[in-house]
Specification:
This protein is an alpha+beta fold and 210 residues long. The chain has 3 helices and 9 strands; from the N terminus they run H-E-E-H-E-E-E-E-E-E-E-H.
Length: 210
């Protein structure tokens, strides 16, 4: 009887040991999964913050460059086909002179690379922004509201002009993260070119009423 009791205790201790090992393995797997998830979330949040920061700084730089150079610039928001799966980016174009809209000037554009030539008197400016700012895959620009445009732009290209007189087209750039339904708005001030990130997001009409 004593022998059987000791054997039972030994098996019980063994069973408890295996249970602890199994728990440790499960906890390790859970911990690894959480670490990976946090890492991905941190990376994605870091990418979004970088885009927001670059865009706000870029707006002020375009405003300053337009005033100093006496030339109209524009921020180009390439929304692609629109929607969460679209490939989107932001870049800068420089006008041939102070005008906003003019016919193509062959003489002024003849020395430009073919890919930088534009049909409306603007061309890509690689001096102010060397490479386009890509929009991270987990977020997208859902709409761009511009005060001169009647309806929000959700696909194709949206242009925000910066005039040499110091005026800027007032605009609201709406950014969405679909998986969490988070929304941000980059508002661009018409007098200073100052860009501000608003959360929660706001419509252009609401910004103008404030």
């Amino acid at each position: 009887m004593r022998h059987l009791l000791e054997k039972y205790k030994f098996q019980k201790v063994q069973n408890q040991g295996f249970t602890l090992i199994e728990i440790m393995i499960v906890l390790s797997i859970i911990g690894f999964g959480l670490t990976m998830a946090i890492s991905r979330f941190t990376n994605r949040s870091g990418e979004l913050r970088a885009v927001l920061r670059k865009t706000t700084v870029l707006s002020r730089e375009i405003h300053t460059r337009a005033k100093l150079g006496g030339v109209t610039y524009r921020m180009v928001l390439d929304l692609g086909d629109g929607g969460p799966k679209a490939t989107q980016s932001i870049y800068v174009e420089k006008g041939i002179d102070a005008s906003v809209i003019r016919e193509k000037d062959e003489d002024a554009e003849k020395n430009l690379p073919e890919e930088e030539k534009a049909s409306d008197g603007f061309h890509k400016d690689s001096d102010l922004l060397k490479n386009p700012i890509p929009i991270p895959r987990d977020v997208y620009i859902s709409e761009v509201e511009i005060n001169r445009v009647e309806k929000p732009i959700s696909q194709g290209k949206a242009y925000i002009h910066y005039m040499p007189q110091g005026l800027v087209e007032e605009a609201a750039i709406h950014i969405v993260r679909p998986e969490s339904n988070q929304k941000w708005t980059i508002s661009i001030h018409p007098l200073t070119g100052r860009a501000e990130v608003l959360t929660p997001s706001m419509r252009l009409e609401e910004m103008q009423d404030q």
